[in-house]
Amino acid sequence: MEALSESTWDVVICGTGLQQSMLALALSRSGKKILHVDPNKYYGGPDAALSLQELEGWAAAHSSSDEQQAGQAVFSNSRIIRNDGAGKTKKKLSFPRAYSLALSPQIIYTRSELLAQLVSSKAFSQVEFQAVGSFYIFRPASTAAAAAAEEEEEEGEEVGSEEGQQEQGQRQRQKPSLARIPSTREDVFSTTAIPSRSKRHLMKFLKFVIDYEAEEQSGTWKPNADEPLAEFLRSQFKLNEELIGYILALTLRLDAPNVSTREGLAVIRRHLTSMGMFGPGFAAVYPKWGGMGEIAQVACRAQAVGGGVYVLGTGVRGTKVPNAAKYEEVEVELSSDTVVKTRLLVQGAGDNMATDGQKMSRLVAIVSSPLDSLFETVVEGAPLPVVAVVAFTQGSVPSPEGSSFEQPILTTVHSSDTGECPAGQSVIYLSTLSCPGASEALDSALSSLLEATAEEGEGAECLFKVVYEQLVSSGTPIDEGRTFTFPPSPAAIAYEDDVLSQVRRAWEKAMGASTKDEEVEYMVFADREAIGDDDVGS
Amino acid sequence: MASRGPPGARGGMNTRFAQFKLVLLGESAVGKDQFDSYRESTIGAAFLTQTISLDENTTVKFEIWDTAGQERYKSLAPMYYRNANCAVVVYDITQASSLDKAKSWVKELQRQANESIIIALAGNKLDLVSEQPDKRAVSTADAEAYAKEAGLLFFETSAKTAENVRDLFTAIARRLPLDQVGPRHSRPGQRQGVSLNPESPNTNVGGPCAC
After folding, report:
1. Region Disordered: what ranges (chain A) (predicted)?
2. pLDDT tens across the length of chain A (538 residues)
3. Is A436 on the interface with B (CB under 8 A)?
4. Running DSSP on this structure, what letter comes out for residue A384?
5. Residues A246 and A378 grouped into a single domain
6. Which of A38, A143, A385, B25 is a Cys-bridge partner for B105, taking CB atoms 3.0 to 4.6 Å apart?
7. Measured between CB atoms, which of B4, B69, B204 is closest to A304?
8. Which residues does chain B have within 8 Å of residue A115's beta carbon, measured at their own beta carbons?
């Protein structure tokens, strides 16, 4: 390890979460001398995907519920509950390495700048992207009948359709169900689940949102920009509560009931314009083998290929500015007792990060069924989806005491094709903003989801689950001259592009004046693959 | 130079073309850096390629993934091993300890990589021993016995003079399942992912067409 301390580094990066890894990628052709360390023995930091064995160790290290300690750590309150072979079906987990569970999985909309940067930096070719398929909304058992009755009333003015009758018949079964959210105009057009009058309103809204930013549209929404989206949909587009539920679910925001018209329109537009960008039938993608952690590994490899030095299992213990007057470099003490000198230290959220303390509660479950019905292609020629999104809107999650949980819960269900679990099983990721009762509500949502997807004679059982809390923030990085600290990630299940501007700020800081150079284009690199013998045609 | 072609087999009438991912492992001093004779330094390439013609109609292309120095502090990522069809583990025949290190790489491969991975053990720096036989620290018989026991292909090579290097790649190529090929989407029945290829329609990311 002596070698690390021998010279002055241009940048020391601590942590291999997505932000730091994207910075490593951005600097991979800069010629800067870079040391990239991570206190963990794996890549990805809070975005990592872990085997069950790694997860055991991780959960033990993040089990603290002590406010003093847990209040500052990114992860806390974690515990594992196993039900391996103990259920009715006696189904069992596979070996620990057959699993790769993501700590903070996020889907990536095809319009995301993240994908554009992975393409322009040539890193994309080492990641296997797969399609995110349908978006569903959960319909609790108790209100299924009520909704059917309501619809019957509306259907009075419709030309009665046979499908409508069948639909209604199904609804009357006293079982919770999942309704696919029609999220494109074609979808809305062809669906039989929405009565015609509502369809017209919904179509009008979808047409509006595609180019809501156009000058002539601004009068419709700008006066209401800071009001809740739900109110806007109700007053301007006369959407009924069911359709408002669909739209709020499609925002994929954990704070959906409070999301403003301004933010809401932007994310709905992102959803609609992402559809079909890289092929028919999907609006978002997910990296195989564990999501963002995979991108982190590929980005770090690009930096390693560019000459960066990688040390896992080594963190930053502290920093010291040796001569404050000179202030040109900082001494960084690594957990391996080595002290290295660097011009810039970039790190992830740590102990001294001031946040508003907002947390997100998560539950990750391995279930004993492939849940095939959630992963069907609905558009001809579409790739088979590997991720399905299920939204529980505010108040739709039954709680044990009979009251209902007053926050949305967002769920992504991953098939074994993601490489996160063996064939025949699937992984369900549930999340909600932390509050009293959140963990019970997540549990209840999981049972309801399994009940809603259960087919005749086949019950899906939860074989393993891990619950935990994660510190989230919509804050900005802290720039203290020689150290630059990223805030925790936002509470989002779809990747938020805002985070990329933080990475770019760190890059600009590392590059100094050379960012002004016209030759230097951010994240745009030439191919460096396949230097070899096959230039000569055969 | 065209970008990487579609994975898997392709070819006309009676020709076969197969592409595989090969990972190259070994301590930094064993000379694996020059293992591919076309390259001067580890730095700068995501991977290299080596093409072997097995016969008139069969061409095998190796996508050779270097560790990019990430092995130095035990920082190799799972994505490095993922879907690797074959591996070359290099040791230095003039350094006894390097064989022990190679053995631990073999264990690591058996832990991290596909069960069906083909592993070749390469005792490098044969050129040094040819000049000064007393420099040899690992006997051919010992290494061969270990390779046999662990089910590995075995060659003594000189990356410097290219001695046996082509034979090594050819031997690996002969072991590979040429009928169900491809470095990434290899297993039969596995579903195809999504292409973010800049050349596909509707993308706003530019780039020259490499078709």
Report:
1. 147-182
2. 458 888 899 999 999 999 999 999 999 999 999 999 999 999 999 999 999 999 999 999 999 886 655 556 899 999 999 987 777 778 899 999 999 999 999 999 999 999 999 999 999 988 999 999 999 999 988 654 455 545 444 444 444 444 444 444 444 446 899 999 987 778 888 888 888 889 999 999 999 999 999 999 999 999 999 999 999 999 999 999 999 999 999 999 999 999 999 999 999 999 999 999 999 999 999 999 999 999 999 999 999 999 999 999 999 999 987 766 566 889 999 999 999 999 999 999 865 566 677 899 999 999 999 999 999 988 888 999 999 999 999 888 876 666 778 899 999 999 999 999 999 999 999 999 999 999 999 999 999 999 999 876 667 899 999 999 999 988 889 998 899 999 999 999 999 999 999 999 999 999 988 877 777 889 999 877 554 544 333 3
3. no
4. P
5. no
6. B25
7. B69
8. 196
Instruction: Give this prediction's pTM.
Output: 0.88
| Domain count of the fold of chain A | 3
What span, in angstroms and rounded, lies between the C-alpha atoms of B12 and B135?
50
Both structure tokens of A285: 């993608």
Residues A189 and A246 reside in one and the same domain? yes
Q: Are residues A189 and A335 in the same domain?
A: no
A154 found inside a domain: no
Minimum-distance CB partner of A307 among B43, B64, B195: B43
Query: Residue A522 falls within a domain, yes or no?
Result: no
CB B44 to CB A314 under 8 A? no
Could you tell me the residue range of the domain that residue A334 belongs to?
2-46+291-355+475-516
Give the domain CATH number at A434.
Answer: 3.30.519
Interchain contact A277–B (C-beta under 8 A): yes
What is each CA distance from A147 to A150, A176, A242, A361, B4, in whole angstroms?
A: 5, 12, 9, 30, 53
Cβ <8 Å between B38 and A120: no
Residue A290 contacts residue A101 (beta carbons within 8 Å): yes
Residues on chain B touching A277 (C-beta within 8 angstroms): 202-203
Task: With beta carbons under 8 A apart, name residues in chain B contacting A309.
Answer: 69, 72-73
- Region of B70 (left: φ > 0; alpha: ψ -120 to 50; beta: rest) is alpha
Same structural domain for residues A460 and A378?
A: yes
d(CA B110, CA A536): 35
Are A279 and B195 inside 8 Å of each other by CB? Answer: yes
Q: Of the candidates B111, B47, B98, which has an alpha carbon nearest to the alpha carbon of residue B122?
A: B98
Q: Point out which residues pair with A391 in neighbouring strands.
A: A137, A410
Contact between chains at A301 and B194 (C-beta distance less than 8 A) = no
| Residue in chain B nearest A38 by alpha carbon | B75
43-72 in chain A: CB under 8 A from chain B: 43
Cα gap A304→B29, rounded to integer Å: 18
Shared domain check, A464 and A484: no
Nearest-CA distance A43 → chain B (Å): 7
Is-contact A491 A360, C-beta < 8 A? yes
CATH of the domain at A270: 1.10.405.10
Is A339 part of a structural domain of the chain? yes
